Amino acid sequence: MTEKNMPLWEVFVRTRNGLAHQHCGSVHAADKDMALQHARDVYTRRNEGVSLWVVRSNDITASDPAEKEMMFEPAASKIYRHPTFYDVPEDVGHM
Amino acid sequence: MYTQGLNTGDKTQSDDPREAVFQARIDRDEKIEPNDWMPEAYRKTLVRQMAQHAHSEIIGMQPEGNWITRAPSLRRKAALLAKVQDEGGHGLYLYSAAETLGVTREEMQQQLIDQKAKYSSIFNYPTLTWADMGAIGWLVDGAAIMNQIPLCRCSYGPYARAMIRICKEESFHQRQGYEIMITLARGTPGQKKMAQDALNRWWWPSLMMFGPPDGESLHSTDAMKWRIKRFSNDELRQKFVDATVPQGHFLGLEFPDPKLKFNEKTKHWDFGEIDWSEFKNVISGNGPCNAQRIAQRRKAHDDGQWVREAALAYAEKQQAQTQLQAAE
Question: Which residues of B touch A57 (CB under 8 A)?
């Protein structure tokens, strides 16, 4: 097949006002207008959203799952970053 | 629907230490995500199953699309149109999920057109009357739901998420089908006869949708171990029969199986022998409509080529203009 492939776009939907956009899938489209149109047809047939984002998949930089520990483990070992690490006398009340 | 494709596959035997870690993640019910390490056979099994599943949705648009222009009322027409559009949407969710495993959409589509990929055998039967729209929604989508609900918990994240969306939408499909059946079954004697005829033709092919009996299903073991599949073909088939038979009796219709009988001991409906030679014949390309379905898919693909080319050419031109303006 000599035909050129259609670029891939990732689709993000905001389900309600006040919520963040969330990834829901992808579509193929030649340009951004077509990507938005396809995203609407494929992912919001039943009032699933009030706003759509489409982003070229090639433009997304992702962390490497193999480096998951190096990236995220240090956060787990620093329990002093959480409020429950600190003792506050009960008499002080809610803080 | 349509997971019956899980009948061919690749054996897994490897000494890779990562495999044990991978299996342990599966056993803990962790989801596997696109860039995680996975055994090649897991990837291949998933690509094959998801592609077959997607192809089934796309081909599945044809038998029902056949009746859109002849729907008996505007209400029925709107519902059928929405259902067929959903099937197309389901195909797209699944292609998109399969692409996360490194296969391109173009490859998958080409394999379908070249008859190198399978799809559910059920779509190779013709839709002869309007009652078939009822029987397909009720039985075919009913069987599909049985098959698909466990897939919502499948170990591969993108597949499981796609299945959750699909299952939510399938419920409308089954209910609209049953409503058509009930309207016909309570109609004139002629309409009731149509409903009975549709049940007669679709019942056995619907049971075949669950795939070969457990003893003969080549790939079940690995798929179970990897938690792609959670119930065996026979278990799901029995569940479907148990759920569907009372619905059929409610319609006042008869199932085309003299051996169908409630078993007081097991509390399940016993049913007759399935004609597996018919199933093998249809799945290997010799069903009543195989050639027609593929020819139609190929024509749609070829007819759309100029549109794809034009869209890409337009996008390129727009991009070149933007770059030119930026340079000025």
Answer: none
**Partners of residue A56 on adjacent β-strands:** A9
Per-residue DSSP letters for A31-88?
A: SHHHHHHHHHHHH-TTS--SEEEEEEGGG-----GGGHHHHHHHHHT-GGGSGGGS--
Counts of helices then strands in chain B (DSSP H, E): 14, 2
The 10 Å CB-count burial string (b at 16+, else e) for A61-91 is eeeeeeeeeeeeeeeeeeeeeeeeeeeeeee
Residues of B in contact with A65 (CB under 8 A): 33, 35-37
Mutate: best of B106, B113, B172, B319, partner A, most A CBs <10 A:
B106
Calpha distance B189→B211 (Å, rounded): 35
Question: Which of A1, A34, A62 is closest, CB to CB, to B106?
Answer: A1
pLDDT in tens, chain B (328 residues): 344 444 444 445 567 889 999 999 999 999 999 889 999 999 999 999 999 999 999 999 999 999 999 999 999 999 999 999 999 999 999 999 999 999 999 999 999 999 999 999 999 999 999 999 999 999 999 999 999 999 999 999 999 999 999 998 888 999 999 999 999 999 999 999 999 999 999 999 999 999 999 887 666 688 899 999 989 999 999 999 999 999 999 999 999 999 999 999 999 999 999 999 999 999 888 999 999 999 999 999 999 999 999 999 999 999 999 888 888 7
> Which among B271, B268, B163 has a CA at the least distance from the CA of B208?
B271
The pTM for the full model equals 0.89
Residue showing tokens 């078939």: B132
